[in-house]
Amino acid sequence: DKQAAPGAPASPSQGHTSTSSSHTAGLGDGYEVAVRALQQLGVKYMFGVVGIPVTPLASSAQAVGIRFIAMRNEQAAGYAAAAAGYLTGTPAVLLTVSGPGAIHGIAGLSHATANCWPLIMLSGSCEQGEVGKGAFQEEDQVAAVSRHVKYAGRADRLADIPTVIAAAYAASVAGRPGAAYVDIPSNILMTRLPGGSGAQEALAKLALPPVQRPRPSACEQAVQAAAQLLRGAARPLLVVGKGAAQARAEEVVQVLANRYGIPVLGTAMGRGCVPDDHPLCANAARSLALGEADVAVVV
């Protein structure tokens, strides 16, 4: 399929024949329901490869202010979307077509989950009535991606779209961030809200479930055990990683280090929790700090 230039409006995919290619989005259909849900959740960026049945979804996203960045390959789009999610703290969307497009997106899902970066992959899939009949690019996409994501859900009805998207968003940012997957069959994407000119009112009634970002807490017994080890340590060391950086825990890390005079070593993704010029920062003497420590507490 021919792709638009990065940041340019999405154009219909060439080389396919389907009624979805002539569908006009943004008139109270599944495309609009999906992008309105993403908009309400604060999603700002969408990366992907357009084609049947998701080209109108990219256009609808741009219409509500979500920036769509067209890519030439789903794997690269997934890496870009995951990086955007990590840098902004809000999941970006990886948009793919059905079948091979969704399969190519698995690399991005695996990458995001392994690195604890929030990402939502949204894929179109074949019409529900055509499953098992050799439909165009038919694939059980939910099953294919499940081992690589924290959540995978399919919208079986128009009204399911906001709920499934909200669940994917919540999963991607909760605890250890990672990837989540949303599957929307093409017939659901093209379903229009009832009411004709009242479609906007009907869209407003599709309530978006509240999304909470629960802050994980350490096991009390584990905290007590770590404290006991530190009390008896002669050369303790704090190793600060990505989780502490994502949680913006730099203040409490520095308070702990300063109060007890504990050197702090930052991992590659944990650096910055303690400034490099801090007297207790051990980044410049990593091997020595690890070799000499008798107790290391990883945060």
UniProtKB/TrEMBL annotation:
Question: Segment Disordered: which positions?
Answer: 1-25
The source's domain of life comes to Eukaryota
* Thiamine pyrophosphate enzyme central domain boundaries: 223-299
UniProt lists compositionally biased (Low complexity) regions at 1-24
Q: InterPro entries from the entry? A: DHS-like_NAD/FAD-binding_dom, HACL1-like, THDP-binding, Thiamin_PyroP_enz_cen_dom, Thiamin_PyroP_enz_TPP-bd_dom
Q: Name one GO biological process term.
A: fatty acid alpha-oxidation
Task: Enumerate the PANTHER family for this protein.
Answer: 2-HYDROXYACYL-COA LYASE, 2-HYDROXYACYL-COA LYASE 1
Protein name (database record) = Pyruvate decarboxylase
The major lineage groups are:
Eukaryota, Viridiplantae, Chlorophyta, core chlorophytes, Chlorophyceae
